[in-house]
Amino acid sequence: MYFDSAATSFPKPKEVKKAISNFFEQELGSFQRTDTENSDFIYETRRKLSDFFNVESPSSIVFTSNSTESLNIIIQGFLKNGDHVITTATEHNSVIRPLVKVKHEKNIQITWVKCDKYGFVNPDDIISSIKDNTKLVIMNHGSNVTGQVQDVEQVGQRLQKYDGKIKFLVDISQTAGHIKIDNSKIQADFLAFTGHKALLGVPGIGGFYINPKVDLPPFKVGGTGVLSELLEQPKAVPLKYESGTLNSLGVLSLYHSLDYLNSLTTDKIASDLKKKTCYFLDRLSKMENLEIYSLENPLGIISFNIRGIVPSRISHFLSKDLDLQCRTGLLCAPFIHEFIHNNPFGCVRLSMSYETTWEEINVVCEYLKNINEQAESIQNIKFPEIYEMPSIKNMEEYV
Amino acid sequence: MYFDSAATSFPKPKEVKKAISNFFEQELGSFQRTDTENSDFIYETRRKLSDFFNVESPSSIVFTSNSTESLNIIIQGFLKNGDHVITTATEHNSVIRPLVKVKHEKNIQITWVKCDKYGFVNPDDIISSIKDNTKLVIMNHGSNVTGQVQDVEQVGQRLQKYDGKIKFLVDISQTAGHIKIDNSKIQADFLAFTGHKALLGVPGIGGFYINPKVDLPPFKVGGTGVLSELLEQPKAVPLKYESGTLNSLGVLSLYHSLDYLNSLTTDKIASDLKKKTCYFLDRLSKMENLEIYSLENPLGIISFNIRGIVPSRISHFLSKDLDLQCRTGLLCAPFIHEFIHNNPFGCVRLSMSYETTWEEINVVCEYLKNINEQAESIQNIKFPEIYEMPSIKNMEEYV
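Above: the input entities. Below: the structure tokens describing the complete assembly.
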């Protein structure tokens, strides 16, 4: 059973599988070259994404290999000496580590904003952290740990009164494909996405939306297939950020998966996963030894621990007895665990998709009920506490 | 007919096609996580690549999305204020543009070394350019424009007497898979490769070898699936450079294509393409209006112009009449054209693979013979010379 959709979605739509299989029957040149007919599906996928996120122009969609690359291009490129940036305790290491790297290299200030025990960030805390030199707000739209979705619309709208002085970067890795991303409401300057999660594409494709009014230097530079005579990177977006051979297979997967998502609708997906998480949590809440970190959510995420048992042991049982794939630990988001109170071992994360069946959910609930009942008799393996847990209270500034 | 293998190889081995098609039938988690059985093929592919390049350790092979990314990680990461770097006129924009970017940001010196009229760089010119502050030599192993292969073994061996003070970066994008890359002879500290050319993988996968003794900071940082509690990038290679979700489909394609290449052998491929280019050039040499820029080569590249006709017009004819796909222009390598004397329009590049048939070659030769005979009567389209051609003579230092 596959309960790891929040890491990589499975299964992919049949249209995606078919297109990938057929890809190799075509004579394939370098697909991203803008002077060949074959490149059309690249542009078309940009168009589909710009519609999907409700942003103005297809050419404001840049392809990268994943969200991490998108976030690095933006964070390492945008922040300058003297800048202040506000971000949250729910961020993934793909935001934390670039910020820490920039802080080592440049004179920047970072304010880390707390979350509640389910991972919710109060928009007031973001807005009240604004200073004269604040240039960027970075928010994780949905927590990969708890499934909590943030009110980025409220933050985006409240940032409008700063007349574009403060840019807004939203990490939609975990939400895109699960819920409607309407940037006319969020008003983000940057949206960083990945293709292999709920967008139902293959691993190794991602990208970002960039507000055409924002000036951002390129990060990696090189061949662009056109304008070969320029010794510097061409200035036009998306070419500016897309040096080297694209993962055209990845783009093709999105070309087809977006059609599938549009026909199914994200509303239907969100509603389905809310029902499933609600039912799942209701069952878990009756088990006395369970600590639950998720609320009903459209991301399909259920995070918990069974008191006295380290999470990796639970996933071992699930794997051995149910052939179930899930994820445990800190889940690449080290700060949030301080607030949901499961340091230092993190939690078990079961994550579902639209394809997860009620039967599967019942089997897992039944199994966890048994574990819960035997919890006290399960001999736990004591892990040495070998590492010091990071805390935002140790960072220079936190709210 | 496909004569664009130097851009992207086609067809891929049937084992690659089959593996990609089957990929979606498996329950796929995040394959690069080192704690799951599924990740084995990632490690195995590193092992196959380390054998293929004859380098010591599988963990010195880093995956990236393409050569351009590899070259950016190395060039932007390695060069520091005060460093001198030596490179050549045959480089691709994936080397030139990162160097020009670093020069804008840091105080570095670059010496550009000339090539002869077929793109050959004299190793003496590299060695005689060495200064006290030389830290890096960058060489394109094989020219994507002419097919010329450089004597990187000689350069690598002559650099040994500098006791590791000068690192050696070889761009093997165009040669890996075509000829044996034996790093025990080249002694490069970095080998940058891409998967979608002669390594017969899919687009969007590449990587580099790094000498374990070399210290190179990470470029993009973020989630690594393990060691989530560290706020800084883990220091172990390859994790240090591999943040974010890998193109696991791309890695899988290399897993299988390397088996195919090992069973066929690069010696056989190189010998086949030498025969084909030799025959092709022999036929072209009898056509009076042809200017030929290639010598016999194992990369399968034939570059030429027909006097008085701009190259894009030739490819238009070839596409229209023979349904042939090839490439024309500057081919992302702006400096070499000054030395092979085809500025400002570049050339026509026909590039072959082991799968190219003698019948196809004969059809193309026959067709070009006709064009050649009618050359004077073909009305050329006059292109305005809208751009100034770059010249290494305008760079600060050239040899």
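Note for the figure: Chain A touches chain B through 78 residues (CB under 8 Å).
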